[in-house]
Amino acid sequence: MDGSAAASAAAGDGGGGGGSKKEESLPPGFRFHPTDEELITYYLRQKIADGSFTARAIAEVDLNKCEPWDLP
């Protein structure tokens, strides 16, 4: 998949349906399968550049108060 196709596909609604024009113009059997580089370049970089985006990659947990099977 080239960069423009990845950008077009990444700009879609995430495959949740809806039948947008972009989805209708794709050939039958098209599968969204971006490379790691395309995900970082076109999706994740824009996500972290957004000032309102907050995410915690690793949750803080008191291991003395949790059973191993209850860990997040």
UniProtKB/TrEMBL annotation:
It comes from the Eukaryota. GO terms for molecular function: DNA binding. Residues 1-31 are annotated as: Disordered. Coiled coil: none annotated. SUPFAM superfamilies: NAC domain (SSF101941). Residues 26-72 form the NAC domain. Keywords: DNA-binding, Nucleus, Transcription, Transcription regulation. PANTHER family: NAC DOMAIN CONTAINING PROTEIN 38, PROTEIN CUP-SHAPED COTYLEDON 2-RELATED. This is NAC domain-containing protein.
